[in-house]
Design goal:
It is a single chain. By secondary structure, the chain is of the alpha+beta class. It folds into 3 domains: about 5-230, 2-methylcitrate dehydratase PrpD, CATH 1.10.4100; about 250-355, 2-methylcitrate dehydratase PrpD (60s Ribosomal Protein L30, Chain: A); about 365-415, no CATH class. About 55% of the residues lie in helices and about 5% in strands. The protein has helices at about 5, 10-20, 30-50, 55-65, 80-95, 110-125, 130-150, 155, 160-165, 165-175, 180-195, 210-230, 245-250, 260-270, 275-280, 285-295, 305, 310-315, 325-330, 365-380, 385-395, 405-415; strands at about 70, 80, 255-260, 320-325, 340-345, 350-355. A 4-stranded mixed beta sheet has the order 4-3-5-6. Helix 2 (about 10-20) crosses helix 11, helix 6 (about 110-125) runs antiparallel to helix 7 and helix 11 (about 180-195) packs antiparallel against helix 12 (about 210-230). About 35% of the residues are buried.
């Protein structure tokens, strides 16, 4: 393997490094307790699923072609090869849609993470409970992060995320259980990622939707076992501009047109050049590019290194601001109105008009948004407990008998 190639892809290698470096002692106690409950829930779903027709058909079909006895089917005396056991057990967890779901990542995580992980435990006796929990955390962490990157649009486009995104939870969990190095985890993810497929049309009466999770579990197990022996996968499985996971399963942007008032055009619509933090903060093209790439436009998006990031520059160059005379004619109260048109490479056009920016008097944020912003900012300077105390004090000012209590908190923060 060429280490330079494996490590030159920040997203894939970053995830692989997390998986390879995860240890039980660094996992918060509340996470361990939650993982145990999630595992219990998945096993309960699987046990119930053994009595369902589609589960029976799958098990009997595999029994006719697989006489191996490496790994067991849960709550059954049946035993198959490890890949077939992972296929069946993943199907069992998802067999009646009762299992856990990560809503932002749009993924039933347990159904794809636990089957390959427990298959490894049978193939390699001696795994401790702490090792099992650590590997489970790796799987539960990685898949949903990929899902959040894809967004809910992924499933809207017709892809079933349990079958597409799920392979990465499966590969991460199995790779962690096998204690693969970060370089080999890269290949495990790359092998699993190229097996990723699944169509949402399966939800209309077909039994096969139940099997999508099982196929992801199986693909992830293959990825980890093959990578362990030196089999190579796609080293930039997420980043590859052609045929990578993110570019294949999401629409690429061809051009973005922002129609705005003359005032907005003059103030923020000029061609972006990396000339410092202030120019980036006030530039419409840069901010649009960052929002699309990272889903957020906040403090971290304006570091010196970020301002000249080639990906941001390339996407910002596709953003064009144009004056819309009709918006200009509406006067100063509507000067922040924009009509955004996004043209995708497949010919799709997306459009939306926003009358006022979030945070303005006509679009004031929810209280939870304000407190979250406060915590994100203050939390960079102060300990979490102090941030929470300050927030609680301000939000309960009407019940405070003496405002000197607030001043004392602020004085404490100034000394840190």
């Amino acid at each position: 393997m060429d280490d330079r190639t494996v490590r030159s892809n920040p997203d894939t290698y970053g995830m692989a490094s997390f998986v390879a470096g995860l240890c039980y002692e660094h996992i918060p106690g509340e996470v361990i307790e939650r993982i145990k409950l999630l595992m219990l829930d998945s096993l309960g779903c699987a046990i119930f699923g053994t009595g369902l027709e589609w589960s029976r058909i799958l098990i009997e079909t595999l029994a006719a072609v697989d006489s191996s006895t490496s790994c067991g089917v849960w709550a059954s005396d049946r035993r198959f090869s490890a890949p077939h056991a992972a296929l069946v057990n993943g199907t069992l967890v998802q067999s009646f849609e009762l299992d856990d779901v990560h809503r932002q990542g749009v993924l039933h995580v347990g159904a794809v993470t636990l089957p390959p992980l427990l298959a490894v435990a049978e193939l390699r006796p001696g795994m401790s409970g702490r090792d099992l929990l650590t590997a489970a955390v790796a799987g539960y962490e990685i898949g949903p992060r990929v899902g959040m990157c894809m967004g809910q649009e992924h499933i809207v486009q017709g892809w079933h995320s349990g079958a597409t995104v799920g392979v990465f939870s499966a590969a991460a969990g199995a790779a962690a259980a096998l204690r693969l190095s970060a370089d080999k985890v890269v290949h495990a993810l790359g092998i699993a990622g190229t097996q990723s497929v699944g169509l949402m049309a399966a939800q209309y009466g077909a039994m096969v939707k139940r099997m999508h999770a099982g196929r992801s579990a199986q693909s992830g197990l293959y990825g980890a076992l093959l990578a362990e022996r030196g089999f190579t996968g796609i080293t930039d499985v997420f980043e590859s501009p052609y045929g990578g996971f993110c570019t294949t399963f999401s629409h690429d942007v061809e051009r973005i047109i922002v129609r705005c008032s003359q005032a907005t055009l003059e103030h923020a619509g000029w061609t972006y050049r990396p000339e410092g933090m202030t120019s980036a903060q006030l530039n419409l093209s840069y901010c649009v590019a960052v929002l699309l790439l990272e889903g957020d436009v906040f403090v971290d998006q304006f570091s010196e290194a970020a301002l000249a990031d080639p990906r941001r520059l390339a996407l910002a160059a596709k953003v064009e601001a144009r004056e819309d005379p009709a918006i200009t004619a509406r006067g100063s109260k509507s000067r922040h109105t924009v009509h955004v048109t996004v043209l995708l490479t497949d010919g799709t056009t997306l459009e939306e008009t926003v009358e006022t920016p979030r945070g303005s008097e006509r679009h004031f944020p929810e209280p939870s948004d304000v407190t979250a912003k406060f915590a994100k900012l203050a939390g960079r300077i102060l300990p979490r407990q102090q941030v929470e105390h300050l927030a609680e004090t301000v939000l309960e000012l009407d019940k405070l008998p003496d405002v000197r209590a607030l001043l004392q908190i602020l004085a404490q923060t100034a000394t840190r």
